[in-house]
Amino acid sequence: MSSSQAEPTATGRMAVYPGSFDPLTNGHVDIIERGARLFDRIVVAVLVNIEKRPLFSVDERVAILRAAFRGNPKVEVDTFGGLLVDYARRKGAHAIVRGLRAVSDFEYEFQMALMNRRLAPQLETVFMMPGEQYTYISSRLIKEVFMLGGSVGGMVPPLVEDELRKKQASLTGGPETRQA
Ligand code: PNS
Q1: Cα-to-centroid distance, 85 and ligand 1 (Å)
Q2: What is the pLDDT of residue 90?
Q3: In ligand 1, which atom is closest to the CA atom of 139?
Q4: Is residue 20 in contact with ligand 1, taking CB distance under 6 Å?
Q5: CB-CB neighbours of 138 under 10 Å
Q6: Is 166 a catalytic residue?
Q7: How large is the average pLDDT for residues 160-178?
Q8: Topology at the third CATH level for domain 14-172
């Protein structure tokens, strides 16, 4: 490569997409794919929150995310605890990505974005809208519908459906947990 050619940057413009991802939905997938087109790299950061009682452990959620984005070298999966802005600073992020589904998301997201800006003025929050078909999907509703026997097909990646089935079996002592 001649010295006049631009060297590919080691990191480029990187964004952190933080969240609980309990579990990953097709709305999250849509935002991650949009983020990966906008930035050179997107780090999907799973919050380690000892107060919440998640359905999937942090390790399970990380494994699901890694499997879902195995083919996309622009997507990295990580975990974080403590303040998001401290994590973003440590990672050298240029932006925080958050998805906005509906007006109801706005107030909470607006508060968080402004608080994060107060804590780290150089860090920009970028809001992205998922495809309209995903605007009503949330991890909370997915868990509720699935656990009550409803279909979540098309709303989560197939591997998440499999993991939900396994989780349900392990919680109810179903066939997948019984000894052969
Ligand atoms: O997907 P979620 O659960 O809505 O994500 C919320 C998340 C992880 C973005 C938020 O809880 C967070 O950033 N937590 C880290 C602690 C922190 O920085 N709190 C101050 C936010 S203004």
Answers
A1: 10
A2: 97
A3: 1
A4: yes
A5: 15
A6: no
A7: 82
A8: Rossmann fold (3.40.50)
4 in catalytic set: no
For the record, the structure tokens of 128 come out as 């992205």
Q: How large is the angle between the packed helices 84-91 and 103-119, nearest 10 degrees?
A: 60
pTM of the full predicted structure?
Answer: 0.91
What number of CA atoms fall less than 13 Å from residue 36's CA on the CB side? 16
Ligand 1 centroid distance, CA of 100 (Å): 14
Among 55, 65, 34, smallest CA distance to 143 is for 55
For strands 75-80 and 41-47, give the pairing: parallel
Task: Determine which residue's CA is closest to atom 12 belonging to ligand 1.
Answer: 84
In the annotation, is 139 catalytic?
Answer: yes
**Is 41 in a helix, a strand, or coil?**
strand
Is any atom of ligand 1 closer than 6 Å to the C-beta of 123? no
The domain locations on the chain are 14-172
Q: Per-residue pLDDT tens for 124-146? A: 999 999 999 999 999 999 999 99
Average pLDDT over residues 21-25: 98
- Return the SS3 of 87: helix
- Is ligand 1 within 6 A of the CB of residue 114? no
